[in-house]
What we know:
Order of helices and strands: EEEHHHEEEEE
Distance between the termini: 45 Å
Strand content: 25-35%
Amino acid sequence: MQLASPLPHSRVSSPSRPATHRLRWPPLWGVGLPARTLAGVSVNPELAGRRYELPEPYVVGREHIRSFAKAVLASHPTHFDVDAARAAGYADLVAPATFPAVLQDAGLQLLLSDPEAQIELSHIVHGDERFTYERPIVAGDELRAALEVKSVKSLGGNSMISAQTVLTDAAGEQVVTASATLVVRATPTESE
Length: 192
């Protein structure tokens, strides 16, 4: 099976078609584009330590869980059938493992819309996402989300933002910790 290369400056070869480009390290970004330069990091490094909290709790509904499960192709009966969830020992429908991404995204939207962040939205790539559970999320949970920017690092003219979102229930108990890394590429500008 032939896989396409994810890198623009390389090509996967096959016996019938030799590679015309070889992977170079470090990559020569911008080769052939002499009129463009990188303006540098566009993210405010002082974001580290900043917190963003959702203003209202998020009440997890059965239809939220069912819709999300369909969207991510999760087919376990505990996501769709209340009786199956209760038979498995849960109070109600159980959210799929990646469901916290819904609340994490809401927190990230607060970060990205902060004018002091200085983030160009068209330059963002989602680099990593992880979830650490204390307990499963079930229908009826009332969750609060607080996102904290853990670090802002510069790497080759690009920025990497590490953020952590903690979800807590109505009793204030931690339910899930969601970690994400955003890569913000440097802004190309026209040279004179």
